[in-house]
Write a structure and sequence with these properties.
This protein has about 260 residues and is of the alpha+beta class. The chain has helices spanning about 15-25, 55-60, 100-120, 165-170, 205-210, 220-225, 255, and strands at about 5-10, 30-35, 50-55, 65-70, 75-85, 85-95, 125-135, 140-145, 155, 175-180, 185, 190-195, 195-200, 210-215, 235-240. A hairpin with a 4-residue loop joins strand 11 and strand 12. About 30% of the residues are buried.
Amino acid sequence: VNRHILCFQEVHGHSAAVRASFNRWLPGWNIVPSVCIDFQGFPDPASGGIVIAVCPKLASFCEIEPLEIVPGRCLSVSLSALVGGLQRNLQILSVHNYGLSFSQVNDIGMQLDSVLQVCQAQPCQFFALILGDFNFAAMDDRTFKIGRPAGESVPSPSCTSGTRQLQWEKHLRHWCEVWQPFPTHFNKVGNSCNRLDRAFSACPKSLLLKLNISFSVVGTPEAVFARGESDHAPTALSFGKSCRCAASDPPIPSWITKHPS
């Protein structure tokens, strides 16, 4: 697997069984499962769950601290290590926004606000991401019909019922969305695709611009659905050091930055 951290959703089964299965599929990885619970507080594996898997290389030198914010729906994993004489921290929050109550979204939002405050205050030591199936599109997103030209796409619904979109957007308004343009979800009823799987960073925008960021959809959601795997296509997100441009080929042309004489 050419990834350092993997986030899975709609994982059904009890925690021990889920961990055992993932240990067979990903030997040596650190597996952190979270299973849904029912209204009585008992595990409800039929309702799904979340898994975050950390590769052996990171697990070998990082202290890994999980935090179950909403069982089976929002899971956080914090990785910390001493790097360059400073204690560095990477926090990954995986969310499946389905069937959440107002108080549950509020609990997640309070965690987001706390994480954002730390990352903004010490951006060289703390970096955080929240990603997953938010089940609502961005304000200017489009819905694409399968087999039709992209020019025939229509605006996605501005507010989707049951997703608590306005509550989410209140807590995410100071996070920076890492954007990619391609659809991630296939709707078999409407034979259409839209972008429901999204990622947000708490890193200051001025520092994000200095990173080499890649965010893409692996395959297409309609192809993944046709194989019987899921109605969502996987996404791949990576961060790296920015490549230095040659002085002869600046990213912003000199005629734009040149002050008029």
